[in-house]
Structure formats: structure tokens, C-alpha cells
């Protein structure tokens, strides 16, 4: 019996139906008066944001409509200097933050702190406009809108997204100087579905991935970096001092950024495979259950599973593939590593580490490549096609 697809798998499969967005971060120089004014605006905005977060946590809902009905009138009375549209933006911004927190911390849901470390303001189409490189932003009640000349958009961004439309701007103030960081979010037209082959992709802990056509992405430094950070974490946790905790926090950010960069590079190469119309992954949302204590899984294996960022690589590849018109399919992962792709015989003894040798027909192959072929075949079966078809016709 096939396992029901997880919500994460269904979301990734539906990425091609969503309007994609791209973000561009640019620096912005402010005058002393502008910095003071937007600092005040950010303070009021974040106080509204914090009130909304507290309400969402207390009522266990992320409905911005319900929050608007319950909070809008009171917030407008409390913060008369803040234009009404910023109140609406803060309510929606807080709803998204709580939703993201609950998704990333399922065991600590509805506990997001109602404060931000950095002064932040989100502008939408009602509070900003962009003409060429001239950006106009709304300000406090009774003050004029401010105009800024942005740095030139990089040529590669213009070439890749010529028909973009500005959707939102996020302003983050630097408390140490008269600088700000703008994140420009653009809506990108949907890519037309393309016809091509079905590619099965097997994700691993040593090779980041291996596909059904023999392509792979190996980065030995990843394992070395993870082992080094694991050793440093263990040493600092044994110390338990306040400075050790600060060091752990900084170290966690560096490791996360390193792995994120590697995953982006691997996803870009995978999504750029020529002639591909469908890309198939295993639905690994339930694999963490294998790492529960009390099972036969050893501690070292549990740690490796818990630190394996397969979800991030799938996420990055899914949206990059969707931007190229490639369909993403998630399949049941059961026995893909134990099944012989030549005869279909399933036995866990078929696989011995990196090698696969079928006990029935004698078929030999790289274990990850054999698994990628099984993933491809399941995707073809789920799409209602035969393995001999070379092209995929999208409905």
C-alpha cells in the first residue's frame, strides 16, 4: 500500500502553479533626518507587529482577516502617527512570521517572540513605487514621501527577468550608521511547461545527489565541515558557559550559511540538466521517524539523519525547476534502495554500502544510481506512462 504524500511533497509539486518571486538586496544611504524618521516609523511598525504576533499566538490562528477585525481599530487609536496601510501590512507580516515559525518549529508552535532584533518595515504597492531606479517610499503622517535613487540593477538580473514587476520592499535599518538594506521582491511570469525526459534523483549524505542518467554532485568538504562543527558543538556544550553559548550561536549561523550555499549550487546544476521535462524525488518527510529513540537505529545514524538537510535541497531544486517549466514529482520512497531495477527483486541484502548486487539476477550497479532509476520508474508509473516514452506531455 502506497504511503500518502506529505503536505510538503504536495506543496513542492504545486510550485509550478504558483507565481514565482525573486528577491534582490541593495544598500541604501540615508540622510540623518531620513534615518531618524524611518527609525521612528520602524519602531511603531514593529510595536504593531509585536501586538499582532501576541494575538496570533494567544488565539492559535494565522488569519490576517480575523486579526484585522479584532485589532485594527484599537491599533489605529494607539498609533495615530502610523498610516493605516502600515498597520495592515504589519498584521499580514506578523501572520506570515507566525506561520513560518510554526512550520519550522512544530514542537514549539504558537510561541514566537513578539519582538524583532532589527528595525524592519515592509512596504507594499500602496506605500511605495518604482520608476526606473527612482524608488518612492511613504513615511509618517504629516511628512512627505521620500525618494531614493537606487544603485543600478545588475545586468544579469535584467537579462534573466526582463518582465519582472515589483511586488514589495522590505527596509531593514542599520543601527550603527546611516545605511539601510532594501529587499526588492519581484513577481516573475510563469514559465511554460517543457517537454523532455523523466529524471529520477536520489539524495544522499555523501553524494548530495545522484540522478538516473549518471549525474551526481559530490562535495567532500561538506562532510569534513559537518564533523568539525559537530566536534566543536560537543566541546562547547560540555563547557556550558555564557561565552560558550554565544560561540555556539555564531557557529550555528556559519554552518547553516555554508550548507545553504552548497545546496544552492547543487540545485542550480540539477535544475539545469538539459532535456528534462519531469524531475522526481523521494518524499522523505517521514524519514525523521527512523531516528526516534527506542528503534534499532544507532546514535551515530540518528545524528546523521537529523543533520541531513535533504529538505532544503529539494526546496531549492523545486523552485529552480519550476522557473524553467520543469514539473516536480514526489514518489513513495519505500524500498527504492533495495529493489533491483533490472528484475524488480526486493531484498535488503542486495545493497552493500555503495554497491548494489542483485541476489536473483546478478545485476550490479552503483547503489545510488539504482535507487535513482527506481525513483524515475515510479514517477513514470504515477504519470501514467510507459518507460519507453522519451517525452513528457504536460496536461
Q: Strand tally, please?
A: 15
Cα distance, first to last residue? Answer: 27 Å
Q: What is the string of SSEs from the N terminus onward?
A: HEHHHEEEEHEEEEEHHEHHEEEEH
* Overall pLDDT confidence: 88
Low-confidence stretches: 385-395
Structural class, please?
alpha+beta
Q: Tell me, what's the shape?
A: globular
GO molecular function, one term: DNA binding
Keywords: DNA-binding
Organism: Bifidobacterium adolescentis
Domain Cas12f1-like TNB: 310-375
Overview of the molecule:
The protein is of the alpha+beta class. The chain folds into two domains: 201 residues, no CATH class; 167 residues, no CATH class. The strands form four sheets. The chain has a five-stranded mixed sheet. Strand 9 and strand 10 form a beta hairpin. Helix 2 crosses helix 4, helix 3 packs across helix 4 and helix 6 runs antiparallel to helix 7. It starts with 6 loop residues before the first helix and ends in a 13-residue tail after the last helix. Keywords: DNA-binding.
Topology readout:
Elements: H1 7-13, E1 21-29, H2 32-59, H3 64-78, H4 84-104, E2 120-123, E3 128-131, E4 134-137, E5 146-149, H5 155-160, E6 165-173, E7 179-187, E8 197-203, E9 207-211, E10 216-218, H6 220-239, H7 242-271, E11 276-282, H8 299-306, H9 310-323, E12 327-331, E13 351-352, E14 355-357, E15 364-366, H10 367-382
Parallel strand pairs: 8-11, 11-12
Antiparallel strand pairs: 1-7, 2-6, 3-4, 4-5, 6-7, 8-9, 9-10, 13-14, 14-15
Amino acid at each position: 500500500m502506497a504511503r500518502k504524500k506529505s503536505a510538503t511533497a504536495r506543496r513542492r509539486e504545486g510550485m509550478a502553479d504558483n507565481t514565482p518571486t525573486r528577491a534582490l538586496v541593495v544598500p541604501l544611504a540615508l540622510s540623518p533626518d531620513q534615518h531618524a524618521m524611518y527609525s521612528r516609523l520602524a519602531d511603531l511598525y514593529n510595536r504593531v507587529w509585536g501586538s499582532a504576533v501576541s494575538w496570533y499566538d494567544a488565539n492559535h490562528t494565522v488569519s490576517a482577516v480575523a486579526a484585522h477585525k479584532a485589532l485594527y481599530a484599537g491599533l489605529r487609536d494607539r498609533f495615530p502617527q502610523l498610516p493605516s496601510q502600515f498597520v495592515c501590512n504589519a498584521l499580514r507580516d506578523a501572520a506570515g512570521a507566525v506561520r513560518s515559525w510554526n512550520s519550522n518549529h512544530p514542537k514549539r508552535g504558537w510561541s514566537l517572540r513578539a519582538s524583532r532584533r532589527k528595525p524592519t518595515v515592509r512596504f507594499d504597492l500602496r506605500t511605495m513605487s518604482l520608476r526606473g531606479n527612482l524608488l518612492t517610499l511613504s513615511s509618517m503622517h504629516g511628512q512627505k514621501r521620500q525618494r531614493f535613487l537606487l544603485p543600478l540593477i545588475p545586468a544579469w538580473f535584467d537579462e534573466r527577468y526582463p518582465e519582472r514587476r515589483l511586488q514589495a520592499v522590505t527596509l531593514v535599518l542599520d543601527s550603527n550608521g546611516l545605511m539601510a538594506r532594501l529587499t526588492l521582491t519581484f513577481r516573475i511570469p510563469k514559465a511554460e511547461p517543457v517537454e523532455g525526459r523523466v529524471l529520477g534523483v536520489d539524495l544522499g549524505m555523501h553524494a548530495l545527489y545522484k540522478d538516473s542518467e549518471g549525474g551526481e554532485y559530490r562535495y567532500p568538504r561538506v562532510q569534513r565541515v559537518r564533523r568539525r562543527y559537530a566536534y566543536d558543538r560537543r566541546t562547547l556544550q560540555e563547557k556550558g558557559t555564557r561565552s560558550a553559548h554565544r560561540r555556539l550561536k555564531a557557529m550555528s549561523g556559519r554552518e547553516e550559511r555554508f550548507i545553504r550555499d552548497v545546496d544552492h549550487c547543487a540545485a542550480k546544476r540539477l535544475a539545469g540538466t538539459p532535456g528534462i521535462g519531469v524531475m522526481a524525488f523521494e518524499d522523505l518527510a517521514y524519514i525523521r521517524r527512523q531516528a526516534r529513540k527506542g528503534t534499532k537505529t544507532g546514535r551515530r545514524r540518528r545524528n546523521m539523519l537529523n543533520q541531513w538537510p535533504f529538505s532544503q535541497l529539494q526546496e531549492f531544486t523545486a523552485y529552480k525547476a519550476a522557473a524553467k517549466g520543469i514539473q516536480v514529482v514526489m514518489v513513495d520512497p519505500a524500498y527504492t534502495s533495495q529493489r533491483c531495477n533490472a528484475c524488480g527483486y526486493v531484498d535488503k541484502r542486495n545493497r552493500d554500502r555503495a554497491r548494489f548486487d542483485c541476489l536473483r539476477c546478478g545485476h550490479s550497479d552503483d547503489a545510488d544510481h539504482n535507487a535513482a532509476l527506481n525513483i524515475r520508474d515510479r514517477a513514470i508509473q504515477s504519470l501514467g506512462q510507459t518507460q519507453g516514452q522519451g517525452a513528457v506531455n504536460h496536461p
